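Students often ask what a holo structure prediction actually looks like on paper. The answer is less mysterious than it sounds. You provide the chain, you provide the ligand, and the output is a string of discrete structure tokens encoding the 3D arrangement of the protein together with uridine 5'-triphosphate.
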Amino acid sequence: MDTEKLKNLFSRCGNGHVFDFWDDLGEPERGALVSQLEKIDFGDLDLLRSKLAAKDSETAGENEAGMRPAPVVALEGASLENAVARGERELRAGRVAALVVAGGQGSRLGFDGPKGCYPVGPVSRAPLFFFHARKILALKKRFGASVPFYVMTSETNDAATRAFFRENHFFGLDENDVFFFVQGMWPALSPDGKIILDRKDHVFFGPDGHGGTLAALKRSGALADMQARGIVSVFYFQVDNPMVEIADPAFIGAHVAANSDFSVKVCAKRDPQEGLGVVVERGGKTQVVEYTELTDEEKCARAPDGELLYKYGSVAIHVFSVPFLAREAEAGLPLHIAHKKVPYVDKAGNTVKPAAPNAYKFEKFIFDALRDARNPICIAFDRECEFSPVKNAEGADSPATCAADPSRKWARWLAAAGCGIETDAQGYPLRRVEIDPAFAADAATLKAALAAPGAPRIPAEGVILLSL
Ligand code: UTP
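The corresponding structure tokens follow.
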């Protein structure tokens, strides 16, 4: 587009400042700025501004009377056996895919690079992506059918993510079964509703949230790829949890048997204040209510049996049906707004990293699609076995906990295989342990792998690393 026209358009909508440093820029920088500006959709910008204007009227505690926890199923006995059998059939028939959302910025962890490249292996320092990919490889070995792997990135980390997979030979996966797709980006706004330059020649954009998955699947052709491969169920998870049981047959089977569009795994919250969303029924719909939208009274409310009323939290482990993903790709999800630190240029053109939140970022959340789903179900799982994310640099959900928790699980598997090692009172092993998911994906396969001819021996002392 002609630059004068672009300048007019932006000044008419109160954003003429994006050209403040135009005269200082060389031709390549001008070109880069113009191509960014051309991508800004003024309809979207209006939506972001209206959301900003309405933010003060949205407060916690506006949940209407009658809201109650959604029913949660604990699979056990025959229901577990049936679900596993059904899920295994789906996997054997090649009707299951895995989808990881890896487009986030990982700002709390403060890691410079895609979060999936973050090293978490307690012995090998293998990255998050290794553990995910090797679990998918194990599924292929076990069921004899590929589980295609869809990896959502953002414009910021797409090239680095693809390069990382390539350098690591796709961690043993067939590269034709790995599909990268890029989510959308939105500008942040200053409190007075203006776009923000973070360099003289660059507008700040942030990823549009994990809710951006739905539109990105369609836009990128990933959805069409799923349909062409005959995929029926998509196991969805977040990149930062190395313990996730990818496409576990019980969850897949329960989802398919219920003819569900959208199934949610939930676990008991650590305490009433833990920052997990809860699945509720209100207004005739099943929905996820974010913890920020619950009052303290609601968070601490007790059921008649004395348990927390909203006992279970969602950790973003889902299964979607492909027809639902196709329908929802067209549906508009609501916008969420967050006050965040956003770098900006000062009057002299220097980039400033603010110490306190200075701007608003906008995101869509995938769980908002739950209200459109038919037959949604919630399945309870044991967090000690499946959930220990790396979110923060220190403390809870940090690199230390996300290395220790899988080690505790591996120590349990070793004990079940008759090769128990010394642990502390909480079951954490006293030496470093790591098991490559392609070597053994659970206690039973570990037992078989250790009993096979030529199997490695567990050393009497020192680190234990079992890999292929
Ligand atoms: P989080 O909300 O924990 O965000 O994302 P984050 O970006 O990883 O970390 P912080 O909040 O900046 O510290 C949960 C999951 O959703 C993905 C993330 O990659 C992570 O797997 N995600 C989040 C996206 O793929 N895109 C987004 O726009 C946001």
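The chain has 14 helices and 20 strands.
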